[in-house]
Design brief:
- By secondary structure, the protein is mainly alpha-helical.
- The protein has one domain.
- The chain has helices at about 10-15, 35-40, 50-70, 80-100, 105-120, 130-135, 150-185, 190-230, 235-270; strands at about 20-25, 30, 45.
- It has a 3-stranded antiparallel sheet with strand order 2-1-3.
């Protein structure tokens, strides 16, 4: 068992609870010591672990890619340069295949999304108890190490993409063109109420599906790791290793899907209908 002093329910709850900072009921500010206390902190509470890990992973991404870009060589490249070039070429090929307009933003945005989401997803392969136990040494009651299992980060990314899509759609087509696209498609001016309903629902569904798809897949993957950790030790490796190998596919696929849909939505923003 993962622990002999707590129940299975307590173990699962502990691993699914974020390290939350916010205002306590007495007006003081600090870290929550239970899930109920975190819930009482309300909207302005901050999931410190999600924020910290996502920020740290983003900084590692920028540092590594910047370092490789400065030391790039036309001779025999090192392993890290090969990896970075492979990722850049992969993203570039996808952008060229789906986005047929001129923009200096799309490729860097797609690269950032793919690598950052991939790195956040990879945290799901860290042994489930390793970092939380390390956190307990420093007095942290909770530590959720996979940022993409927090709906706040996935919906935050999705809403950011949505805002960029709307901005460029208005920039390319003008406010009138953007409004006309919502009002007069697909049934022309005589179907305006139905057009508005369908197009607004379609528009709002994009960030919701984008964020919840990533969250749901990674949350389910983490839950299975937690459930495996509750089994007797002798059977854990027999199940966790095959699941980890299969989960690598999910980790990469979800980062790829997030990037592809971002490119597609941006292409739609530039297209004239």
């Amino acid at each position: 068992m993962a622990s002999e002093t707590i129940t299975s329910r307590e173990y699962i709850t502990h691993h699914l609870t974020n390290l939350t900072y916010g205002q306590h009921a007495d007006g003081s500010w600090g870290l929550a010591h239970s899930g109920e206390e975190a819930a009482q902190m309300g909207f302005w509470a901050v999931n410190v672990d999600t924020f910290g890990f996502s920020l740290a992973l983003g900084m590692i991404f920028m540092f590594v890619f910047h370092r490789v870009a400065k030391r790039v060589t036309t001779g025999v490249p090192g392993g890290m340069q090969n990896l970075v070039e492979m990722i850049v070429d992969f993203v570039d090929d996808n952008v060229k295949g789906m986005f047929h307009h001129e923009s200096k933003l799309i490729a860097p945005m797609a690269l950032t999304i793919f690598v950052w989401v991939l790195m956040m997803n990879i945290m799901d392969l860290v042994p489930i108890d390793f970092l939380p136990k390390l956190g307990e040494v420093f007095g942290l009651h909770f530590l959720k190490v996979v940022p993409s299992t927090d709906v706040n980060i996935t919906m935050g990314l999705a809403l950011s993409v949505f805002c960029v899509v709307v901005f460029f759609s208005i920039k390319q087509k003008g406010l009138g063109g953007f409004a006309a696209e919502l009002a007069f498609h697909p049934f022309g001016k005589f179907g305006l109420p139905i057009n508005l309903f369908l197009e607004v629902v379609n528009l709002l569904a994009k960030p919701i599906s984008l964020g919840l798809r990533l969250f749901g897949n990674l949350y389910a993957g983490e839950m299975i790791f937690i459930l495996i950790a509750l089994l007797p030790f002798w059977i854990q490796w027999a199940l966790s290793v095959p699941w980890a190998i299969f989960h690598i596919l999910i980790i990469v696929l979800q980062a790829f899907i997030f990037m592809v849909l971002t490119i597609v939505y941006m292409a739609m923003a530039f297209d004239d209908h």
